[in-house]
Design goal:
2 domains, 4 helices
């Protein structure tokens, strides 16, 4: 019995071609089988058929519902809690029209969570030119102590200063490391003589 992850050519395992195959276990039932190394399937045929039947039943269930609601429920970024993640990595929150901060929302009623947290802290809606900056660079860390308010120009200057400081530190570290390597090489050559 082959081990999981073992790779063999098709000719070695009585396949008609000479492709490479890997011994793989089904993600659902755990049944082991040989699958093509370059296009491995996660499920065996039986489990894949069950999944196909489930999808058919699911599509029949959604048949009479509005297309927008179906797209929303199938979208991996949309949660039933009214929270989703923007493609840029920022967390978004859906606001209701009767919310005080609704003016900050986009036409589809979504607002970036870090902007909403800063607005609630300041007790006013933020202007479009005001930018909320994450101090530690983590877009999902929306704690108030990690956020600071900038104008667009101040935000750019802050980022440039960080890049410049990082570049200078990296340059100096690299130069110092190179000098140490050269000194060590010179010392080893002196010892050989």
């Amino acid at each position: 019995m082959p081990q999981l992850g073992e790779i063999k050519r098709g000719s070695e395992i009585e396949k008609a071609n000479s492709h490479y195959y890997v011994w793989h276990a089904c993600a659902d039932c755990g049944a082991e089988r040989w699958v093509n190394k370059y296009t491995p399937t996660k499920r065996c045929k039986r489990c894949a058929q069950k999944t196909l039947e489930f999808r058919k039943r699911l599509s029949e269930h959604f048949k009479g519902r509005s297309n927008l609601k179906i797209r929303r429920e199938k979208n991996y970024r949309w949660l039933h809690t009214g929270i989703k993640y923007h493609s840029s990595g920022y967390k978004q929150v859906r606001l209701q029209p009767n919310d005080f901060y609704y003016l900050m929302a986009d036409p589809k009623e979504w607002v970036m969570e870090h902007r909403l947290i800063m607005a609630k802290h300041l007790r006013r809606c933020l202007q479009l030119w005001e930018i909320v900056h994450h101090k530690n660079g983590n877009k999902t860390d929306n704690r108030l102590e990690n956020l600071e308010l900038f104008s667009r120009n101040g935000h750019i200057q802050s980022h440039n200063k960080g890049y410049q400081d990082g570049f200078t530190k990296g340059y100096n570290d690299g130069r110092n490391k190179h000098i140490k390597e050269l000194l060590a090489r010179i010392e080893s050559l002196e010892n050989q003589v």
